[in-house]
UniProtKB/TrEMBL annotation:
Belongs to the FliQ/MopD/SpaQ family. One of its GO terms (cellular component) is plasma membrane. It is a multi-pass membrane protein. The chain crosses the membrane at residues 13-38, 50-70. Coiled coil: none annotated. Its main location: membrane. Keywords: Cell membrane, Cell projection, Cilium, Flagellum, Membrane, Transmembrane, Transmembrane helix. It is found in: Cell membrane. The lineage of its organism: Bacteria, Pseudomonadati, Pseudomonadota, Alphaproteobacteria, Rhodobacterales. GO terms for biological process: protein secretion. This is Flagellar biosynthetic protein FliQ. The keyword Ribosomal protein does not apply.
Length: 89
């Protein structure tokens, strides 16, 4: 296995992690911005107002995007296991 093959596998792994975690991170960013905007408009500085809706939205988003994340991770793992079984790329 050459350095180029290892680089390809590592870059595939990084892209897979970004694709699998991307929807949840974007959702958390959006909810956080909406809550921050609401707090700036109303000047309500309650600490639980920032955490509870964000945690609830992340949980719902995680349940909704779990099949996509599983499929993405399954594709990477089957590719890597195929490389292991064949001996080299």
């Amino acid at each position: 296995m050459s350095e180029g093959d290892i680089y390809t596998i590592l870059s595939d792994m990084i892209w897979t992690v970004l694709l699998a975690s991307g929807p949840i991170l974007i959702l958390a960013l959006g909810v956080g911005l909406v809550i921050a905007f609401f707090q700036a408009l109303t000047q309500i500085q309650e600490m639980t107002l920032t955490f509870v809706p964000k945690i609830a939205a992340i949980f719902v988003g995680l349940v909704a995007s779990l099949p996509f994340a599983y499929g993405t991770l399954e594709r990477l793992s089957s590719h890597v296991f195929d490389l292991i079984a064949s001996g080299a790329p």
